[in-house]
Amino acid sequence: MMIKTIGSICSGIEAASVAWKDFSFDFKWLSEIAPFPSDFLKIKYPDLLNVGDMNAIPKKILKHEIDAPDLICGGTPCQAFSLAGFQNGLNDERGNLTLKFCEIINANDEIRKRQGKEETIVFWENVEGVLKDKTNAFGCFLSLLAGCKKELKMNKFPNAGLLRGPKRNIAWRILDAKYFGIPQQRRRLYVVAGGKGFNPENVLFEKHEKEFSEFKKYPLRFEM
């Protein structure tokens, strides 16, 4: 699937559009409610629609008020999962926006299916605390996106994984920004997902170009 159009959720100052500027993606809409970033976005992207509250996005998509893009990206509020907070997970209205994000993706899928298009490509980011959330937010998130009939449950999800679900394939991994040119330690969870013909592991996981047997072997020596 060739990605051409994007919708952005919890856009902030719209860092994704800067990071992906070399790909010539067409951002169709963004979603931000905080006053300062909203004002900033009006200046930076005066012609780009800010749909505002993400809770209204599913209906807007289903009513064809906004486009159903190829890819939807977003980092829903992390305060409910952060080690620095109370960690109330889905019992916190901010944490519950994780499930609203899935509702948006499913609404987008519905319209795309009517249009004869593939499932939405998903890019989502959050803090690593969501992996061990006591309300199982990440398990619910995976289940809804993958189309699982039952809620996936683990005491703590691994730092990296791959799920091939009935509806969607999902890969996730914790990456630290300090290894990507940022002068700070910033560990974050990244999720990439797409339809059954999409392989998200090719995006998030490195592949060895050579078989291990091809690498030179060195004897182990101990010197006293």
Automatic annotation (TrEMBL):
It catalyses: a 2'-deoxycytidine in DNA + S-adenosyl-L-methionine = a 5-methyl-2'-deoxycytidine in DNA + S-adenosyl-L-homocysteine + H(+). Its EC number is 2.1.1.37. GO terms for molecular function: DNA (cytosine-5-)-methyltransferase activity. One of its GO terms (biological process) is DNA restriction-modification system. The active site is at 78. Coiled coil: none annotated. InterPro entries: C5-MTase (IPR050750), C5_DNA_meth_AS (IPR018117), C5_MeTfrase (IPR001525), SAM-dependent_MTases_sf (IPR029063). It comes from the Bacteria. It is an enzyme of class 2 (transferase). Belongs to the class I-like SAM-binding methyltransferase superfamily. C5-methyltransferase family. This is DNA (cytosine-5-)-methyltransferase.
